[in-house]
């Protein structure tokens, strides 16, 4: 089933493999480079590519050498990337990622913001090396709506840059999940406290993107119960059940395997449109496999996303089709190095 076509919004995907978003930290002055265009174009046989996290505004930048999409120069640079992917027959969404409290003044030139003035208790990568995550400035109520609208503005710019759509990053401890989290969000206004309050920011951010570019071009990534970057979520089934009910119609949700199969199946049944599952989970030693993908398609997922397997295997679709071995990668080349980016070849027969 992985190699069968699928209709996603207004796109026909030739297969059900999604290249998952992965930070590669190779932007220059906040913009993708010619090598970025090569990297994504090499992987254009994926049913859908979702880019690395792209910050929707300046304060949202989470780490050094991460690209943005909030200036005209960044839009122009991304246009070269989307043109290259489309020239190779691919389809590409931009992942919109606001770091929230995962950020540093040395990185973004702005002090990070978050739902509450609570540090993540982890380290942040800065241009001078790892540093403790600072205590963010808690957003005022009026400012929360501005940060939600930033996703809509970025979605509009993404379409200007030639992207086929956008995915909001609601996973892995960044701003959207910080609002969902009981450990990062201690607000007492309408954006905290109850489950309805904690899901409100996610819903408003998605609504802003949908209003900007249309429902069939918008998705969101989620890591229910995921506990990286200082995140703790209480009442996970109720929290995500409420979130899925409150979200507007859109192209898909993209879920990491951060909870047990029973809860994942419950989310699948509760969500009316496309369901993308990432079998590799969060950061760890396990890569998603072809067998896991087929199992989840049989269990009701529509599309399967692969992360690390796509770093070293630009031709992952063909390797799955022919049962070819996968190339491995070295962790020290995942971020920022000159090698380990566009130099992985297709399989040599």
TrEMBL record:
Q: Which is a Pfam family this sequence falls into?
A: Oxidored_FMN
Q: Which residues form a coiled coil?
A: none
| Protein name according to UniProt | Alkene reductase
From which source organism is this entry? Lentzea cavernae
Question: From what superkingdom does this record's organism come?
Answer: Bacteria
Q: Which residues form the NADH:flavin oxidoreductase/NADH oxidase N-terminal domain?
A: 7-325
Task: Report the InterPro entries cross-referenced here.
Answer: Aldolase_TIM, OxRdtase_FMN_N, Oye-like
């Amino acid at each position: 089933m992985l190699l069968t076509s699928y209709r996603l919004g207004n796109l026909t995907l030739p297969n059900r493999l999604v290249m998952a978003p992965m930070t590669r930290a190779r932007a220059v002055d906040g913009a993708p480079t010619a090598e970025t265009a090569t990297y994504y174009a090499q992987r254009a046989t994926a049913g859908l590519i979702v880019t690395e996290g792209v910050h929707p505004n300046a304060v949202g930048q989470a780490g050094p050498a991460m690209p943005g999409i909030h200036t005209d120069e960044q839009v122009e640079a991304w246009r070269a990337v989307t043109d290259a992917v489309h020239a190779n027959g691919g389809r590409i969404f931009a992942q919109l990622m606001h770091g929230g409290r995962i950020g540093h003044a040395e990185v973004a030139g702005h002090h990070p913001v978050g739902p509450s003035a609570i540090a993540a208790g982890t380290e942040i990568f800065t241009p001078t090396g790892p540093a403790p995550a600072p205590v963010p400035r808690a957003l005022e109520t009026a400012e929360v709506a501005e940060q939600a609208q930033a996703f809509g503005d970025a979605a509009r710019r993404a379409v200007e840059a030639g992207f086929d759509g956008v995915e909001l990053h609601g996973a892995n401890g960044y701003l959207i999940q910080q609002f969902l989290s009981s450990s990062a969000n201690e607000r007492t206004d309408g954006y905290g406290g109850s489950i309805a309050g904690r899901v409100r920011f996610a819903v408003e951010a998605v609504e802003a993107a949908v209003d900007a570019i249309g429902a069939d071009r918008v998705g969101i990534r989620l890591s229910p119960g995921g506990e990286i970057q200082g995140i703790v979520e209480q009442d996970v089934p109720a929290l995500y059940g409420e979130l899925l009910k409150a979200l507007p119609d859109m192209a898909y949700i993209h879920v990491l395997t951060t909870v047990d199969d029973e809860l994942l199946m419950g989310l699948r049944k509760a969500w009316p449109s496309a369901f993308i599952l990432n079998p590799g989970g969060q950061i760890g030693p396990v890569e998603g496999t072809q067998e896991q993908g087929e199992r989840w398609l049989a269990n009701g997922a529509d599309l399967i996303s692969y992360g690390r397997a796509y770093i070293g295997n630009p031709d992952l679709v063909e390797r799955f089709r022919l049962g070819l071995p996968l190339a491995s990668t070295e962790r020290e080349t995942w971020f920022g190095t000159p090698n380990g980016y566009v130099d992985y070849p297709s399989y040599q027969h």
